[in-house]
Amino acid sequence: ALASAYKKYAFHDEQDVVVKLDPGSGEVKVYVQKTVAESVSDTGHEISLAEARKLRKSVQVGETVEMKPVLMDAGRIAVHAAKQVILQRLREAEHQKTYEEFSSREGEIATGVVQFISPAQIYVNLGKVEAILPAGEQIPNERYRVGQRLRFYLLKIIQAGRGTQIVVSRTHPNLLRRLFELEIPEVHSGAVRVEAIVREPGYRSKVAISTTQEGIDPIGSCLGARGIRLQNIIKGLNNEKIDL
Questions:
Q1: What is the DSSP string of 23-41?
Q2: Which of 2, 91, 198, 215 is least crowded, fewest Cβ atoms below 10 Å from its Cβ?
Q3: What is the mean pLDDT of the chain?
Q4: Distance between CA 47 and CA 236 in Å, rounded?
């Protein structure tokens, strides 16, 4: 990062720069690197064999040498630029880490907090990152408020130029499927299977279920004692009716 900054701001990208940092003292030395040539045609990148052998006697044509440390006002010319380059690299690394973490979670469910509401979309805090809930992925009759905690379906994880963009949904049928897996142990274990979902978000959903084991009542398993399991799912979907 320091080399990039010096090259850009001190040498206007016209020379190859090497930066060496002494870990013990913290001293930074800046060198110009040039290629040894029999006939110099580019003084910014080349040095004659005679001049190069003043620096290193055994050097040959085609090899590179490092010139004496460049003396300059680092504070005035390059420190601010170097800081910006380092911060940019850190941001890029953070964006890449976020993408790698969330790309494997596409199609899963996540809990988030409504952070900001605009006409086109809602911004949701997923903890480490921010996601967007587009208008088309919002439950029609659901009223959102800042600070509200909800479960969202991770619809798309996009690696964009300015970082990772996460798009979430409250209307996708698989949100309901994942809620069944979370709230109903028999669905999570595979003893009860969700075969199909037809959903009219915010109003009514129909869920076809079956069992893979004898003696298990799939409807009873999904309802739970006094219907508590299904009620938890219904409350999480703004009181959307669910027919089994």
A1: TTT--EEEEEEEEEESS-S
A2: 215
A3: 85
A4: 72
The three-state secondary structure class of 179 is helix
Specify the CATH superfamily of domain 105-169: Nucleic acid-binding proteins (2.40.50.140)
Rg of the chain on CA atoms, in Å: 31
Which residues lie below 8 Å from residue 115, measured CB to CB, with a gap of 6+? 123, 124, 125, 130, 146
- pLDDT tens profile 182-240: 999 999 999 999 999 999 999 999 999 999 888 899 999 999 888 999 999 999 999 99
Listed in sequence order, the residues at least 6 apart from 140 whose beta carbon sits closer than 8 Å to its beta carbon are: 201, 202
Query: pLDDT tens for residues 231-242?
Result: 999 999 999 999
CATH superfamily of 2-99: NusA, N-terminal domain (3.30.1480.10)
CA distance 32 to 45: 9
Residue pair 103/27 in contact by the 8 Å Cβ criterion: no
Nearest to 182 by CA among 210, 224, 140: 224
pTM of the model: 0.64
d(CA 30, CA 46) in angstroms, rounded, equals 17
Q: How far apart are CA 106 and CA 129, in angstroms?
A: 14
The CATH H-level superfamily of 173-243 is K homology (KH) domain (3.30.300.20)
Dist CA 63 CA 58 (whole Å): 10
C-alpha 186/C-alpha 218 separation (Å) is 8
Nearest-CA neighbor of 154 among 215, 104, 218, 84? 104
